[in-house]
Write a structure and sequence with these properties.
CATH superfamily of the largest domain: Glycosidases
Number of strands: 25
Helix content: 10-25%
Strand content: 15-25%
Low-confidence stretches: 1-20
Strand order of the largest sheet: 6-7-10-11-12-13-14-15
CATH topology of the largest domain: TIM Barrel
Radius of gyration: 25 Å
Shape: globular
CATH architecture of the largest domain: Alpha-Beta Barrel
Largest sheet: 8 strands, parallel, barrel
Length: about 625
Amino acid sequence: MHTRPVLPLAVWAALAAAVAGAGPLEELLPRPKEAEPRAGEWAYDAAQVREEAAPAGKPGAYELEVGPQGAVIRAADAEGRRYARATLRQLAELGGGLAPACRIRDWPTFRWRGMLHDTGRNFQPVAQLRAQLPVLADYKLNLFQWHITDNHGWRLQSFRHPNLQAPENLDRSDGFYTQAEFKALIAYAHSLGITVLPEFDVPGHSRCLRRAFGVKRMDAPKMRQIVADLLDEYSDLLDPAVTPFIHIGSDEVGPNERVPDAWLAEWVRLLEAKGFRVVAWGPGQNPKGLSQPLVRQYWMGRQVKRSGDEPYFDSQSGYYINHVDPLELLAPAAYQQPCATGPEANRLGAIFAVWHDDAAGDPRDILAMNPVFPAIALYADSFWNGRPADRMDLYGNLPDPRDPAFAQAADLERRLLAHKPLHALRPFPYWKQTDLRWRLAETAETLPFASLPWGERIIAQGTIFPQHFFYPQSNLTDGKAGCVWLGMVVMSDAERRVPLYADFMNYSRSEGRRREPPLAQGAWNPKGAQLFLNGQEIPPPRWAQPGLSGPASVEQPLLDEIWFARPPLRVHLRKGRNELLIKLPKGGWKWSATCFFPDTRGLTFLPPEPPGKP
C-alpha cells in the first residue's frame, strides 16, 4: 500500500500556511462528486482509519466520513478503498496535517485515466519513472502507458534477439530496460493500483528494429517471425490479471513499414491466445478478420467515425503536453470532454501523453520542459469527472471572465494552485493567470496605447493564441490585419522591481525547430514581436543558441528557448498605473504570446478601455 512519508509538524504547518484559502474540502483534485462539510477536524493518522464494507456499486466508488474522532471508509472493492485513502491523505496535506470533518461520496466517470511516457525516443531511467507513479496514484490516475520502442531505440531487453540492444542499434542513448526492471516496475505500479500498458510500436516507428536485422522494409519475410518472437517473449513476462492490455502501435506507417494485414492479425491473435486484449492507435493500420475489435487509442481526428463495437481511449492533441504550453493546459482540462463520442459502454477513458520527441539533453529535462506534474493534477479532474460539454471553441483560449462558463476554469485553477506547494521538490510550471485582463486590437498601424482599437472581449490568460495551431474553433481573430496588439493596465500599490515571464516563440518539444524560421539574437521571434512597458521596449534575453532551424535541430536539445525553463525577466513598475503592450505580427506555426507576472502581490490587472469609453 502506498503511504506518504511522515512529515515534521513544522513542515505540515508551512504547507498549511502556503495553501491557505478556501479550505481543503474545496481544494481537492479530482473534485469529489458529493462533498458535505461538517463541524470539526481530525489530526490525520493513517493507522487509525477504519474500513467498512459497502454494497456493490460502480467500480472504484467510495464513501468517506471524517469526524473529530477519526475517519471511516466504505467501499465495495479495493479500488474504492484506495481512492478513499488518497482523498483522505490529500485533505490532511492541504489542511497542514488536519483533515476537516466531512462526508464525501465519489466515483470515477471513466474507468481508465492515465499518462504516457515515450521512452523509445528518449530513455528515462527506471528511478525517474518510478518516482512519478505515486504521484499518479495520489491523483487517482490508474494507467501508465509505457511507450518502450520507437525509431530511436527498442528499449526492452530481448534474450531471443539481443542485437536489438547493441549500442549501434540505439540512437541518442544506449539505455534500455532489463526484463527484471520491466517486471519490477509493473509490480510496483500494480501495488499502487496502476495498470501498466506496455507499447511495442510496430510496424511503423521501426527504424532501429529494421536496422538491427539489416532490412530496409518491414515486409521483409523474416520480420514476420521476428516480431512474433518478440511479442511472444515479452508477453511471457506478463500476467494478464495484472497487465490485461498490450499495445502494438500500428500508427504512422511509412512506405517502408507497411506489412500485410495478415501479419498484423497474426500478431494480434498471438497475444489474444495468451489472454491479453490488444490496443492499437487510431488512425492506424486496421487488420481484418479478427475475432474482436482492437481497443483503439485515438490521437487525432476528433470527429472520426467510430464503429459501434470499438472500445477506445482518448489521447487527442489536447492531451499531447509536449505541444502544450503550461498555461494552455487549463482550457482543455476545464472544457474538453474526454471520449466525447460513441456509445457510453465503449468510452473507456483518456491518457495524456508526454512525447518529448526531440533529443533531450538530460532525462530530467523531460520533466523540466514539459508540464508533467500540473497536467497530472489538472487532467486527473477531467478524466475522473468528465465535462458537461465538449467546448472545442474554448480549446486554446478561456472564455471572457464575464461569461458564466469562466467560473469553471477559475475554480480549477484555484484548486491547482493550492496543490503547487505540495510539489515543491518537483518542476511545477504553473502560475495564476485567471486574474489577468488583456484586450486585443487588430491593426497593422503603430498607435499609442489609448488609441488602439481595443475589442470588447476581455482575455484572462497568460498565454494567448490569436489563432490556434490545432483547433481554429478557438481563434480570437481571422488574422486579416496581419498584426494584433495585446494590452493590459497593471496597477501597482508601490514602486517595485518584479519578475515577468514573456515569450513569443512557444516551441514544442517535438519536431525540432523546423516549423519555424531561425530565432535571431536580439529578437523575440522571427516576425518582429515587441514588448513594451510604459512605452519603453523590453528586449528579449540573450539566447544561448540562436539561428537553429531545420530537421537537424531535432538533435540539438532545447536550452533557454522554453520560457518556463529559463528565469523570468526583471522589470520596473511605477506606483499606480502601468501600461503593458505587446505587438504580435502574424506568423509561425504557433501564433502566440505569453506574458504574465508570476508574483502578483500588490498588483491589480485591468483591461484597456475600448475607443469611445472614458
